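Usage

Read records sequentially. Each one opens with the input sequence:
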Amino acid sequence: MGGLCLKSQPLAGSRLNIFICIYGVSKMRKLIIAVSALGMIGLAAQANANGQQTYQQACFACHGTGAAGAPKLGDKAAWADRIAQGNDTLYKHAIEGFKGAKGFMPAKGGRADLSDDAVKAAVDYMVAESK
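and closes with the structure output:
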């Protein structure tokens, strides 16, 4: 309900209890949910940015030119069959390497210094750009 504060005890000396007293617990919960949702959106955007950065630094040499049979970024036809296999397969091939009928994917694109998460972010970026 409302903003009636019957108990006025500071929460570790912060202004949080004043906000709760004025606006009510229900509104505070909504604010926390909204701020959390915005944070999640920010993390998703950051992950995409990191995927793009990894692509530009490590993947572009092949996926930007089609070298070694690599599907070029944005080529929907070249990516369609690969995307249909699912992200887990794409991640596995990108991390562990893969030799197929259409080309060769070295493990982590030949960049052993990349983390698995960085490779997955790059795969996610390429898939999103190629659907």
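Summary fields computed downstream for this record:
- The first strand starts at residue 98 and ends at 100.
- Strands lie at 98-100, 103-105.
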